[in-house]
């Protein structure tokens, strides 16, 4: 079975649009949350968002968008993109440069791309409104590919001339973790030798506000207090958008190209709660099962795990479920496993979360630090017993487990090990 | 679901030449629709919407096309002739064509259906098409692409003296290609140890393209067609050769009728090799004549039997064809 390594990363996130800035935020625990101007209307009770800086994509016309001058994107490509496609395109360019891939290494039958985004509710809304207003035959010819779920893979596969496996994943907040898991499988099975994993979200009004009806969004007006996973005073999650791209390659490709990987992907597991369409299982049944399967597949004992990057989104029910699942899986080893949720810094990236936080783990392994729990003052009593470091610890470590959970009770766990 | 389903072509309804009064809010909408076009495009559109005068249409159409062309290719449109090709020269794909159509529909308040779009290959095709739509005239015959088999079957000139590999013919022009293979018999002596395509042969090739235009593109009188046996060379003016053409070169030929009145047709013609000008002919004049179109005889089986008192029933045959 070939081993699989992470060889490239690209970021457009609320805590930075390049790896160095992201590392800086993870080390210093500086968040990327702000009072989001479109939410400051009196009839919108939630105010804070993990905003993307340096980009504007708040028009339905991509030619109005602005992005850092380092990126040049032709109208021909822009016109079919959603805002999340713009973020992902830029993150792709970073990941390609980071992995030092040449065009033939990107475009061949053994290099694929798995992507996850919730589509673009913003553009769907716009194009449907136009259809009603100006007539069926005058809606934009690119409206569908710019807005439906799948827009991310359609656009990236065409723009980067991907010829291997391509697919979109849709398990809500577990989507890009699923994408990572199945990409790993394709590499292990010898179907592909290199995979791009992409997660991206618009992170705008139409993507975030629909969660308000479920009362899962934080109503905090202080950006420094809005996202605080495992804290007794948490009151819901903070939405965010952006994109992350991860390059996975087989050990043969790593050796042939002579690149230094960030980390090895050891294995993954998934399991479902079979419980509720939107509420996580109170005991974290599916999450615990996913972690156990991931550990077994990776041939790793719970006691070997040094850090867990939790799914914890700062919601009342979800954080407790995950804490119970961690307690069940790690048992006596629990006090030695550092646990933190970097959503305290970024906000919750929905479909983007799994791969973004996996990429944070890769950075932590390479640079030797364990990200701490930002904004945590009083630990939720139900989460007692977890080892929740309040600051980022600078220390080399080897093994990390990443949790992701989504609607319908979908749970994914992935294990990474430092490549050194 | 990769392609829109084909829809039957509805009759070409002319745009009402008496436009509904142009309201101030229409101007706001129009300005928003054309915000990425040049100010002159907007001006032309507003004039058209206020007056219905079709003279403003070409400026609107070119302005809209320009807006969708990548900036580095827009210079081609600045002094473009009508032969500029949408796909090959301007990089417009079928989706961009749809964007252009939707904006033109929106601005000129007309509807264009899918079928009508298929034949638009050049800037000239688009201008003529929109002009006909606006004026309510019948649409021109589409540009026909003719492969070598078709050229050989209609031309009075045959190999080894036929110098066209492929051609496209419309009602306003013809273009063609010929690759100099090096196997042409006359290159053995023209020149000694130095094969160069004779300028006279290049003029001949332009003449052949003009013959093809007369046979396949020229509008004829009702019930008549141009007879291949009536076409001959009469004269030429202002012929200049600019470039040596050798084996391996691909000659891009084009001719355009300047005057046509039985029995004389005068063309201007040019040959390029890549971006290089090779030959210019200010005038090439041919004679031609019409013959009556004789309907091809119906298949014997469909003819009424000479002795039968009643004509053979048509219905079963039609049914068989439809089956």
Structure explained in plain terms:
The complex is a heterodimer of chains A (about 425) and B (about 325). Helix content of chain A is about 35%, strand content about 20%. Chain A has a ten-stranded mixed beta sheet with strand order 5-4-6-8-1-9-13-12-10-11, sandwiched between helices. In chain A, α13 links the parallel β10 (about 305-310) and β11 (about 340). The longest helix of chain A has 17 residues, at about 85-100. Chain A is built from 15 helices and 13 strands. Chain A is globular and about 65 Å long. Chain A has about 425 residues and is of the alpha/beta class. Chain A folds into two domains: about 5-255, Peroxisomal Thiolase, Chain A, domain 1 (3-Layer(aba) Sandwich), CATH 3.40.47; about 265-420, Peroxisomal Thiolase, Chain A, domain 1 (3-Layer(aba) Sandwich), CATH 3.40.47. The two termini of chain A are about 20 Å apart. The mean pLDDT of chain A is about 95. Chain B has about 325 residues and is of the alpha+beta class. Chain B has two domains: about 25-135, ACP-like (Non-ribosomal Peptide Synthetase Peptidyl Carrier Protein, Chain A); about 145-290, Thiol Ester Dehydrase, Chain A (Roll), CATH 3.10.129. Chain B contains ten helices and nine strands. Chain B has helices at about 25-35, 40-50, 55-70, 75-80, 95-110, 115, 125-135, 150-155, 200-215, 315-320, and strands at about 145, 165-170, 175-180, 225, 230-240, 250-260, 265-275, 275-285, 290. In chain B, β6 (about 250-260) and β7 (about 265-275) form a beta hairpin. The longest helix of chain B is centred in the middle third of the chain and has 18 residues, at about 200-215. Residues about 1-10 and about 300-323 of chain B have low confidence and may be disordered. Classes of the chains: A alpha/beta (about 425), B alpha+beta (about 325). The interface of A and B includes residues 74, 75, 138 and 140 of A.
């Amino acid at each position: 079975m070939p081993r699989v390594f992470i060889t490239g990363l690209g970021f457009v996130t609320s805590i930075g649009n390049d790896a160095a800035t992201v590392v800086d935020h993870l080390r210093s625990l500086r968040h990327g949350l702000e009072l989001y101007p479109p939410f400051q209307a009196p009839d919108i009770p939630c105010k804070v968002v993990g905003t993307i800086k340096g980009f504007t994509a708040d028009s339905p016309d991509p030619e109005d968008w602005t992005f850092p001058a380092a990126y040049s994107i032709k109208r021909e490509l822009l016109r079919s993109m959603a805002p999340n496609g713009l973020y992902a395109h830029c993150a792709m360019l970073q990941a390609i440069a980071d992995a030092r891939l040449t065009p033939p290494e990107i475009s061949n039958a053994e290099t694929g791309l798995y992507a996850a985004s919730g589509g673009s509710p913003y553009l769907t809304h716009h194009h449907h409104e136009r259809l009603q207003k100006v007539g069926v035959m005058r809606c934009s010819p690119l409206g569908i590919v710019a807005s439906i779920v799948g827009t991310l893979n359609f656009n990236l596969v065409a723009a980067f001339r991907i010829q291997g496996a391509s697919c979109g994943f849709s398990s809500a907040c577990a989507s890009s973790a699923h994408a990572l898991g199945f990409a790993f499988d394709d590499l292990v099975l010898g179907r592909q030798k290199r995979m791009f994993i992409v997660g991206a979200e618009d992170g705008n009004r139409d993507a975030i506000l629909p969660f308000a009806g479920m009362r899962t969004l934080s109503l905090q007006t202080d950006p420094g207090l809005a996202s605080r996973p495992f804290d007794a005073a948490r009151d819901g999650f903070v939405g965010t958008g952006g994109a992350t791209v991860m390059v996975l390659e087989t050990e043969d490709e790593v050796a042939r190209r002579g690149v230094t990987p960030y980390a090895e992907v050891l294995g993954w597991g998934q399991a479902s709660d079979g419980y509720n369409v939107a509420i996580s299982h109170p005991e974290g049944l599916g999450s615990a099962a996913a972690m156990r399967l991931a550990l077994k597949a990776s041939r790793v004992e719970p006691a070997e795990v040094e850090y867990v990057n939790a799914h914890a989104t700062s919601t009342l029910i979800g954080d407790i479920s995950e804490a119970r699942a961690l307690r069940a899986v790690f048992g006596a080893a629990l006090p030695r496993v550092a646990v933190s949720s970097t959503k305290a810094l970024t906000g919750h990236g929905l479909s983007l979360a799994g791969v973004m936080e996996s990429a944070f783990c890769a950075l932590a392994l390479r640079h030797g630090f364990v990200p701490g729990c930002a904004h945590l003052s009083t630990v939720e009593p139900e989460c007692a017993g977890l080892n929740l470091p309040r600051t980022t610890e600078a220390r080399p470590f080897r093994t990390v487990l990443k949790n992701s959970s989504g609607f319908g009770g979908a749970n994914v766990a992935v294990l990474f090990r430092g490549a050194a | 679901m990769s392609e829109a389903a084909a829809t039957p072509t509805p009759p070409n309804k002319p745009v009402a030449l008496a436009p509904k009064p142009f309201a101030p809010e229409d101007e706001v909408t129009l300005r928003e629709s054309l915000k990425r076009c040049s100010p002159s495009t907007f001006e032309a559109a507003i004039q058209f919407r206020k007056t219905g005068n079709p003279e403003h249409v070409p400026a609107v159409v070119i302005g809209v096309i320009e807006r969708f062309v990548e900036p580095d290719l827009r210079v081609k449109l600045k002094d473009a002739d009508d032969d500029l090709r949408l796909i090959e020269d301007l990089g417009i794909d079928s989706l961009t064509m749809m964007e252009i159509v939707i904006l033109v529909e929106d601005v000129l308040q007309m509807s264009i259906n899918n079928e009508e779009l298929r034949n638009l290959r050049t800037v000239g095709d688009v201008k003529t098409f929109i002009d006909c739509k606006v004026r309510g005239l019948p649409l021109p015959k589409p540009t026909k692409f003719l492969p070598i088999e078709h050229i050989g079957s209609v031309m009075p000139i045959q190999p080894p003296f036929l110098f066209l590999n492929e051609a496209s013919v419309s009602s306003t022009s013809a273009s063609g290609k010929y690759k100099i293979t090096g196997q042409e018999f006359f290159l053995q002596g023209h020149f000694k140890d130095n094969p160069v395509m004779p300028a006279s042969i290049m003029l001949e090739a332009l003449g052949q393209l003009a013959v093809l235009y007369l046979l396949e593109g020229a509008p004829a009188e009702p019930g008549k067609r141009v007879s291949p046996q009536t076409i001959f060379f009469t004269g030429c003016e202002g012929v200049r050769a600019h470039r040596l053409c050798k084996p391996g070169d691909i000659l891009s030929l084009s001719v355009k009728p300047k005057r046509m009145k039985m029995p004389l047709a005068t063309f201007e013609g040019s040959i390029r090799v890549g971006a290089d000008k090779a030959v210019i002919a200010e005038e090439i004049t041919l004679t031609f004549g019409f013959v009556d179109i004789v309907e091809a005889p119906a298949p014997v089986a469909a003819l009424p039997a000479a002795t039968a008192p009643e004509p053979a029933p048509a219905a079963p045959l039609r049914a068989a064809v439809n089956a």
